[in-house]
Amino acid sequence: MTISLVLSIIMLASCSGNSQSDEALANLAVTVDTELQSLAKGSPDWLGVGGVSYEDKVFKIELCLEQLSADAIEQPLAEYATAIYMRSHTGATLDGIVNNLVKTDGKMVIELSDADGASKSFEISASRLRRLVVAKLMELDYNAVKENVSDILSANCETYSADMRAASCDFELNGGFAQYTLTFPASTAYAQYTTGSLAGRFLKILRPAYEKMGDCEPIVRELMESLGIDGYRFICTAQDGKTLRAPIAWRLLDQAPATTQNNEE
After folding, report:
1. Looking at residue 184, what DSSP letter applies?
2. I want to staple 139 with a disulfide (CB 3.0 to 4.6 A). Which of 135, 170, 215, 225 is the partner?
3. Radius of gyration (Cα) for the chain, nearest Å?
């Protein structure tokens, strides 16, 4: 009887603790929803938020990517981006989510969708979530994240190649830059450009793209910079002529004039 009584007390205390954690997580979901809705409002061309909820030990965050494909994001990158966001939002809310999910043995689920209707789900256990907060970024599947970001950036080759009417475009992360090499049949195709004018041409493409990120731009920039990406480099090359290089550091991107659309607003 004594043993049964002790076990009953332990079970009741455990249930009571979980009930309190469940209630706390439900309230925290409302707080996070408000924060993310505000972020989405400041980034309407980049991010949409379906909602944040907590139920059955699952802290669910529903996001819609307006410019990226959900299929392009892999688990390591999803976790890495979550870590960067959380580290810029430390405090009672973050502590409450992590600590209470640990108590309930719960998990965070991030559901991504995109403008084409594709969707993808990422589960992050409570223990993994805690590690995302305390571990160094270099310890969070860094190489896999870098490879995923490289794949996403390489998708821009088609845009840059079409804009310059190049025969081909190759991408790589090289020397701290997101580097695009445009190959032409002959160097006459870019003979009219200098380093400065070539950089100016691509700034007219890059600046609007980053403006579309809105309030999400600092998060994207922090993620890229944490991977050692200091800006962009565009290279025009041909077998019969000289190679022209135009590096664009973040500083130049920041100094580029706002687009006409933003000026009108």
Report:
1. -
2. 135
3. 23
Q: Which residues pair with 181 in a beta bridge?
A: 170, 235
Residue 127 exposure: Cα atoms within 13 Å on the Cβ side = 1
pLDDT in tens, 15-32: 445 788 899 999 999 999
Contacts of 127 (CB under 8 A, 6+ apart): 102
Task: Centre a 10 Å sphere on the Cβ of residue 243 and count the other Cβ atoms it contains.
Answer: 11
Report the predicted TM-score, pTM, of the whole model to 2 decimal places: 0.88
Directed axis angle between helix 75-87 and helix 217-226, to 10°? 110
Q: Give dist(CA 148, CA 112) in Å, integer.
A: 16
In angstroms, the Cα distances linking 223 to 82, 108, 127, 230 are: 10, 21, 22, 11
Of 145, 158, 262, whose CA–CA distance to 210 is shortest? 262
Q: What tokens does 26 get?
A: 């439900």
d(CA 49, CA 166): 38
For residue 216, how far is the Cα from the chain centroid? Answer: 9
Query: Which residue reads 């139920």 in tokens?
Result: 55
Contact 145, 77 (CB under 8 A): yes
Q: What is the pLDDT of residues 154-199, one digit of tens each?
A: 999 999 999 999 999 999 999 999 999 999 999 999 999 999 999 9
